[in-house]
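Page 37, continued from 36.
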């Protein structure tokens, strides 16, 4: 498996697991987001995670860092206008 170096999965270990038709498949191990804090940010009507990440980190592909900082499984909830979310510090 190959991921971009900026991907949250770039350093995630893989394991071999039984495949559905015999043989094996390569799968990622469970990724547990690291605990992180951040600066509070109030979501505006026109916000998207990639836009907030671009403004905050200078890289829209880092949107997942905001999701991790807020322990969100559904990233769509993070962009509800008026909601206060945490934006982690730059790496």
């Amino acid at each position: 498996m190959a991921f971009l170096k900026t991907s949250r999965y770039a350093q995630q270990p893989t394991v071999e697991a039984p495949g559905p038709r015999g043989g094996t498949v390569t799968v990622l191990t469970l990724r547990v987001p690291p605990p992180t804090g951040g600066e509070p940010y109030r979501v505006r009507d026109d916000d998207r995670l990639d836009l907030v990440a671009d403004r905050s980190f200078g890289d829209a592909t880092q949107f997942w860092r905001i999701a991790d900082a807020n322990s969100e499984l559904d990233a769509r909830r993070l962009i509800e206008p008026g909601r206060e979310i945490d934006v982690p510090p730059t790496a």
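The first helix runs from residue 49 to 57. Flag for discussion at group meeting. The beta strands are 14-18, 24-28, 39-42, 84-87.
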